[in-house]
Amino acid sequence: MARVLGISAHYHDAAAALVVDGEVVAAIQEERLSRIKNDPGLPLAAAFACLQHAGLQPGDLDAVAFYEEPFAKLERVLVHLLRHLPRTWRAFPRALAGQLGSKIWVLDHLSEGLGVARDRVVRFDHHRSHAASALLVSPYERAAVLVVDGVGEAHATTIWDGRGDDLRLLASVDFPHSLGLLYAGLTAFLGFAVNEGEYKVMGLAAWGQPRLREHFQKIVRLTGDGAYELDLACFAHMSDADLGFGPALERLLGPRRPPGRPWDFERADDRHYADVAATLQAVLEDILLALARKARVLTGADHLCLAGGVALNALANARLQAEAGFSRVFVQPAAGDAGGALGAALLAAKGRGDPRPAPLRSAALGLPIDAARAHDIAGELGLPVRRVDDPAAHVARLVAAGKIVAHARGRFEWGPRALGQRSLLACPRDPATRERMNRLIKEREPFRPFAPAVLSERTGDFFNAAPDDMTPFMTTTARVRDATQSRLGATTHRDGTARLQTVEAARAPELHAVLSELAALGHDPVVLNTSLNGAGEPIVAGAEDALAFWLRHGVDALVIEDLLIERSP
């Protein structure tokens, strides 16, 4: 039996994950502790936090597992930089410095930073780490595994045959042809930040129509074998990682949208940009569907696991569930680069004879919140804090009264979705709640939707869907019933769908208690659930973060475990 710490770092969303004797004990993104959004740095704080939670020291570890092969990545970067000279000459010094600096020596830096012998630091292929992060915590003994992201060492898309704890690579599409980089380039074209704005593009898509398919046939095309190719002239990911697209894309689609300009769909150009987003989303879904069907043919499996950053596209996941021919689909909640830390840990544990872990039931894999410390800090700040016997009952009554409640209870979440442990909760009925949330708290674009969380057994009352393997982790969408859209006005998107979370007591007990109390009071057991953070901030982790959020943002109440703070009327 082994104790293994997995690490992902040096691209974006660095993380650590701890597996002990075949059990996933803790998984933490570095941003939660550093308070730097999408922190890519070596996640030593997250690593030590995982160990402390388990009562372990670095010397107790049998292995530290890194999620990719640094020298293989260096080789790919050098080959492509040299192959595309002189186009890449501006990017060459920076890319080379980045690879030959902290990235190439990351295994040594982990050994030194953690105080672990160098021979205990191992590494795995990037896409294999992703594939393991999905298959090995899924509920399936047999599954096709589809990994789609920007790029690992060389692969951008891979198909695997997963059997038990074994993964066999069947097919790949390699850099520079990449769906992740396609979506990133169009994200930049639309004026959003790469590696952060992709969610915005997905939300924007509902405001447009896929009218530009003819243009996109010149940007990306399906090949006859279920794979795809990019027109590389439209992209700049080999020469300009920040911009991501080239002049040919602007010749096809018009000039890029100015970053930061307020959106106004009365403007013809903003309607055009919405059509770009809608077409991009539709084309991405078509390609993913072709890849998933290819995976079905290659493996003969009835179940599908998805990983990689593109697997966080909830709209695409819903279409794969409906049309790809699989009976069940699973997406690990931290499907992006953070999830690679978990996959690497699981691979290393498997190599030391550990059993495959139980299926992942909850994303609450972070640290618990310290109510005693929150009470002390609140007292020092003179905040009107009080203890309550039944926090869920108080939250339910506040939500029913139209209040916005910051809800910090239990261990914080693994992945980008707040699932009730670090959430802002509100009544889902009134669209004005959405506007208030967007304008005063989240400070984000008005077209971005909020998600509903519903008691699992009541899902069919409000949605044309049933709970599945994705809905507990909010990684898919469902159509809102026509008869209930007026009752879910703040969480129903323009296209009539919602990014749904179904809630069971075993998975999210604190949020389940709130929803059950709402039902007991005669209200719909549904809340608007969005992440507990402000614009540009990581999701809240500890007591200090929750209180700092309270002081900066105009929410009506804050609950930290059994502590309640309310604003005066």
From TrEMBL:
Domain of life: Bacteria
Domain spans labelled Carbamoyltransferase: 3-346
Molecular function terms, GO-annotated: catalytic activity
CDD domains: ASKHA_NBD_TobZ_N (cd24098)
Matches recorded under InterPro entries: ATPase_NBD (IPR043129), Carbam_trans_C (IPR031730), Carbam_trans_C_sf (IPR038152), Carbtransf_dom (IPR003696), NodU/CmcH_Carbamoyltrnsfr (IPR051338)
Cited Pfam families: Carbam_trans_C (PF16861), Carbam_trans_N (PF02543)
Carbamoyltransferase C-terminal domain segment(s): 396-567
PANTHER family: NODULATION PROTEIN U
Family note: Belongs to the NodU/CmcH family.
Protein name (Swiss-Prot/TrEMBL): Carbamoyltransferase
Organism: Nannocystis pusilla
Lineage of producing organism: Bacteria, Pseudomonadati, Myxococcota, Polyangia, Nannocystales
